[in-house]
Amino acid sequence: MNGVLIPHTPIAVDFWSLRRAGTARLFFLSHMHSDHTVGLSSTWARPLYCSPITAHLLRRQLQVSKEWIQALEVGESHVLPLDEIGRETMTVTLIDANHCPGSVMFLFEGYFGTILYTGDFRYTPSMLKEPALTLGKQIHTLYLDNTNCNPDLVLPSRQEAAHQIVQLIQKHPQHNVKIGLYSLGKESLLEQLALEFRTWVVLSPQRLELVQLLGLADVFTVEEKAGRIQAVDHMEICHSTMLHWNQTHPTIAILPTSRKIHSSHPDIHIIPYSDHSSYSELRAFVAALKPCQVVPIVSQRPCGDYFKDSLSPRLSIPLIPDSVQQYMSSFSRKPNFLWLLERRLKRPRTQGVVFESPEENADQSQADRNSKKAKKGKLSPWPGDLKKQPCHHPLQIKKQLFPDLCSKEWHGAVSFCESQKKVTVPTAPLGFSVHLRSIEEKFISTETREEIGLGPHLVLRGDDDDPATTGNQSAWMGHGSPLSHSKATPLLATEFRGLALKYLLAPVNFFQAGYSARSFDQQVEKYHKLLL
């Protein structure tokens, strides 16, 4: 992975691991090669800055949402905020990196000084004529593409390498030509070969869409056998495919790369055509800029010693403004807590038990309490009133609510839930309102042998500090529930009321995980027998 977190700034370039991003606030993408997009996917949900071509490829290839992509025009300067109040800003300028379609260098200017991040680039002298680099600016930190930073590696220019490829094809006038490429890059080479040999170049549909976006000459097609030159994935160039291709027609393969690759077949030719700067080009580039320090982008290949004679005196570490520090620190905490919280809140909620604070119940208006008293007269009386007691032992409360039930021992298993569905019944302390959402179960009355539905929900509202609601039958009735109509449907049988109350009063930590409905009833009975 090639990416950096620029120290003492909220800037991250080609770095997509939010877990390790720390205080990064602004994310930039130099180009779309896979070694610079590790960790970037369709789930990305942060503002991302890049060139317009890269923005198009992000949407098409990685399906990154359009709302997070901020396309910045190449060659123009853009002002971006560095805090939440607009006190600190920075200027970023995108410069063509001459590497692949959409690739850019980033020139950052702000409280931290001037930083140039080259990304992958192939140096040309014309880069020094860019307006952003011709104003005599002192580059404090240069993040340099050091892929080919090796004095022993001598590379030709791309024009010279392209000429070698032309000469090789001319030596095989009757052969088909396979050009092994990565998914992005060297489209201009293909155009040059098509015009040189006056033939169509066969591409994949994805690559054809790209060259049409770039506005290249109309020399490309997806039709097989339309031309003798075809661009294929570089992994296809191997011994077995060469045997297969040559069985039908004489074929040569070309790998335009500066990497050291062993040729597995006599007709596989490796040409040192590179989209990365050579060592001599890097020397010329650094000598012209004279930065204070050079930081290699490919960390496994240190190259600082090669440019010591071209560096300017180093400056002190800049102070981070307070507003930027606050912005960076608040953002670094957000992915760990707030961001995860936001994602969880967006998930669909499973209906269950909802606890309301007793303070909210205490704030109910007197009109609501009078309304409950009015409803109480219309409903059949509740067996016994709950009296305020200093001790809230489950057994004592049960005896106060159901004196007729507690005078005799509970016998037999009631067909409260015959299915083997897994259930979870949490319990709430008195003083909290409990809303029991219906799970569409029905019960059989032992008196009428009729099905009794619990309706949309059964609401238990009790506050041991509120005498207006204590013992109130209406507080146990759900809105729209059949239980609220005493004339049409009688209350649950005494046995069912007792069992339901036992469910509410049994502590949740008493039960074992992963129990069925039948074993759950048995555990409830076991718990309450221990209390007797």
TrEMBL record:
<keyword id="KW-0779">Telomere</keyword>
<protein>
    <recommendedName>
        <fullName>5' exonuclease Apollo</fullName>
        <ecNumber>3.5.2.6</ecNumber>
    </recommendedName>
</protein>
<keyword id="KW-0378">Hydrolase</keyword>
<keyword id="KW-0539">Nucleus</keyword>
<dbReference type="GO" id="GO:0005813">
    <property type="term" value="C:centrosome"/>
</dbReference>
<dbReference type="GO" id="GO:0008800">
    <property type="term" value="F:beta-lactamase activity"/>
</dbReference>
<dbReference type="InterPro" id="IPR011084">
    <property type="entry name" value="DRMBL"/>
</dbReference>
<dbReference type="GO" id="GO:0006281">
    <property type="term" value="P:DNA repair"/>
</dbReference>
<keyword id="KW-1017">Isopeptide bond</keyword>
<keyword id="KW-0963">Cytoplasm</keyword>
<dbReference type="InterPro" id="IPR036866">
    <property type="entry name" value="RibonucZ/Hydroxyglut_hydro"/>
</dbReference>
<dbReference type="GO" id="GO:0008409">
    <property type="term" value="F:5'-3' exonuclease activity"/>
</dbReference>
<keyword id="KW-0234">DNA repair</keyword>
<comment type="similarity">
    <text>Belongs to the DNA repair metallo-beta-lactamase (DRMBL) family.</text>
</comment>
<dbReference type="GO" id="GO:0000781">
    <property type="term" value="C:chromosome, telomeric region"/>
</dbReference>
<feature type="region of interest" description="Disordered">
    <location>
        <begin position="352"/>
        <end position="390"/>
    </location>
</feature>
<keyword id="KW-0540">Nuclease</keyword>
<feature type="domain" description="DNA repair metallo-beta-lactamase">
    <location>
        <begin position="245"/>
        <end position="299"/>
    </location>
</feature>
<keyword id="KW-0206">Cytoskeleton</keyword>
<keyword id="KW-0832">Ubl conjugation</keyword>
<dbReference type="Pfam" id="PF07522">
    <property type="entry name" value="DRMBL"/>
</dbReference>
<dbReference type="GO" id="GO:0031848">
    <property type="term" value="P:protection from non-homologous end joining at telomere"/>
</dbReference>
<keyword id="KW-0269">Exonuclease</keyword>
<dbReference type="GO" id="GO:0005634">
    <property type="term" value="C:nucleus"/>
</dbReference>
<keyword id="KW-0227">DNA damage</keyword>
<keyword id="KW-0158">Chromosome</keyword>
